[in-house]
Amino acid sequence: MDESFGTAFRCKKEEALLFSQRMAQLSKALWKSIEKDWQQWIKPYNLNINEHHILWIAYQLKGASISEIAKFGVMHVSTAFNFSKKLEERGFLKFSKKLNDKRNTYIELTPKGEETFHKLLEDYDPARTGIVKGAQPLHDIYGKFPEILEMMCIIRNIYGEDFMEIFEKSFSNIEKDFLNERGKVTKRLRNLKTQLLRQQKKRLKQIKLFNDLYKFIH
């Protein structure tokens, strides 16, 4: 006879075992591909995955505590602190204390750190990303990538609502601050500056053509 386990669970042991191991093995296989692509992406900037993740979180939170970095980066507090210190030494982060909170250490991106973060996004190449290639057939059929709602529900139940709020905020900020131009991710303000320069060059070219035509006629 099949028996369910515990009072809080309404599933059978065999069912739970198969599900957990299926998730474990699929996650491991997926992470191996993601890790390799992530490392190749950030390698030119001499960063590791934890350091890049810290830059990502610091960009979104605009002044995050070390404990927040650890929580949302899914890493130990000592790991978050040590890698943040290395980023500070390279001029990417600055440390500070708040007047009303002397116990926690806060970090914020420096102009150099923010510029590096922007360049990393601009350098991203989906053609060299395994998970994008793997999901491309689904995108071709449905017109978008999988929303992985079931996985997000599981993560929410494990890590809590705050974690998912920051997760969603981080990607909405990227969509708000950056755009896709000619297959590359670019900062909107930088894109606006580029457009203005193009318009200015176009006007100068038109003026030159008009002057040349005027000289020819007269």
TrEMBL record:
Keywords: DNA-binding, Transcription, Transcription regulation. NCBIfam families: PRK13777.1. SMART domains: HTH_MARR. One of its GO terms (biological process) is response to stress. It comes from Bacillus safensis. The keyword Transcription applies. Residues 16-160 form the HTH marR-type domain. GO terms for molecular function: DNA binding; DNA-binding transcription factor activity. The gene is hpr. This is HTH-type transcriptional regulator Hpr. SUPFAM superfamilies: Winged helix' DNA-binding domain. It holds the Pfam family MarR. Signal peptide: none annotated. Gene3D superfamilies: Winged helix-like DNA-binding domain superfamily/Winged helix DNA-binding domain. PANTHER family: DNA-BINDING TRANSCRIPTIONAL REPRESSOR SCOC, TRANSCRIPTIONAL REGULATOR, MARR FAMILY.
